[in-house]
């Protein structure tokens, strides 16, 4: 089995004359939590949107599970990018039912994912009445419906209170044991430090560093060095 579930080779994305992602070569180990760090505007979301098929790369290559990425691979990739795609007038169960119908998945999967994200007891409460943390967990439940090998979460703790962050952190930590690799993008160093096995640091559209997150590593110092280096090269 290939120990790298996702790899990109010299991946680039240009909007008109602006390079948003520049020559990124990344390797994400299977059954790990890969923290993709970068300030707002570093190019993280653009990069992740290419992996999830929302954007087409200008150049470069994406390899998934040992082969060249194609749109069929989206059946094995789950994602929550930006805000959770919810119908606020529907319950959690009804939101998931819409997706299982479209994806042709069994209804039994609804109860399974609600149990995973601890939303089984929400009953007739509509998604619009959910707290921000509950909405994020429902968004993750939607991303888990197709039982993905790779789960991509873009700034999932944005707007959450400390309790919501703690709950989400524990949930994300559980995924590798279930055979799900996670890419977690964030600009919050402390959050990634507590949850990730491997990290990549982006600045100005460039992946300036990647490697295993070592115990006792000064992540803030490393982040600032990379951010400053590539900011100067604009």
Key descriptive features of the protein:
234 residues, alpha/beta, 6-stranded mixed beta sheet, 4-stranded antiparallel beta sheet, 10 strands, globular
Chart the SSEs and their pairings:
Layout: E1 4-15, E2 18-29, E3 33-37, H1 44-51, E4 59-64, E5 67-68, E6 77-80, H2 92-103, H3 108-116, H4 132-144, E7 150-154, H5 162-174, E8 181-186, H6 189-195, E9 198-203, E10 206-212, H7 219-231
Parallel strand pairs: 3-8, 3-9, 6-7, 7-8
Antiparallel strand pairs: 1-2, 1-4, 4-5, 9-10
Helix pairs in contact: 2-3, 3-4, 4-5
Task: Characterise this structure.
Belongs to the ABC transporter superfamily. Keywords: ATP-binding, Nucleotide-binding, Transport. This is Lantibiotic ABC transporter ATP-binding protein. Residues 6-229 form the ABC transporter domain. One of its GO terms (molecular function) is ATP binding. With 234 residues, the chain is α/β, with parallel strands linked by helices. Helix content is 32%, strand content 28%. The protein is built from seven helices and ten strands. The protein has helices at residues 44-51, 92-103, 108-116, 132-144, 162-174, 189-195, 219-231, and strands at 4-15, 18-29, 33-37, 59-64, 67-68, 77-80, 150-154, 181-186, 198-203, 206-212. The strands form two sheets. Strands 6-7-8-3-9-10 form a six-stranded mixed sheet, with helices on both faces. The protein has a four-stranded antiparallel sheet with strand order 2-1-4-5, with helices on one face. Helix 5 (162-174) links the parallel strand 7 (150-154) and strand 8 (181-186). The protein starts with a strand and ends with a helix. The model has no long low-confidence stretch (mean pLDDT 91).
């Amino acid at each position: 089995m290939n120990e790298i579930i996702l790899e990109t080779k010299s991946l680039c994305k240009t909007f008109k004359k602006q390079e948003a992602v520049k020559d990124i070569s990344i390797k994400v180990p299977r059954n790990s939590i890969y923290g993709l760090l970068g300030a707002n505007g570093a190019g993280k979301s653009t990069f992740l949107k290419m992996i999830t098929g929302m954007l087409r790369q200008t150049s470069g290559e994406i390899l998934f599970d040992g082969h060249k990425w194609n749109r069929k691979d989206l059946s094995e990739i789950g994602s929550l990018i930006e805000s959770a795609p919810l119908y606020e007038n529907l319950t959690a169960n009804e939101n998931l039912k819409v997706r299982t119908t479209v994806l042709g998945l069994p209804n039994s999967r609804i109860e399974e994912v609600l149990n995973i994200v601890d939303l089984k007891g929400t009953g007739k409460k509509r998604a619009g009445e959910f707290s921000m943390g509950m909405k994020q967990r429902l968004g993750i439940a939607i991303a888990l419906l197709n039982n993905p090998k790779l789960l991509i979460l873009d700034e999932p703790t944005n707007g959450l209170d400390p309790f919501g962050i703690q709950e989400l952190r524990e949930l994300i930590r559980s995924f590798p044991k279930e055979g799900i690799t996670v890419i977690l993008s964030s600009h919050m160093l402390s959050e990634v430090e507590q949850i990730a096995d491997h990290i990549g640091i982006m600045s100005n559209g460039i992946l300036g560093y990647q490697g295993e997150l070592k115990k006792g590593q000064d992540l803030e110092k490393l982040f600032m060095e990379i951010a400053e280096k590539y900011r100067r090269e604009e």
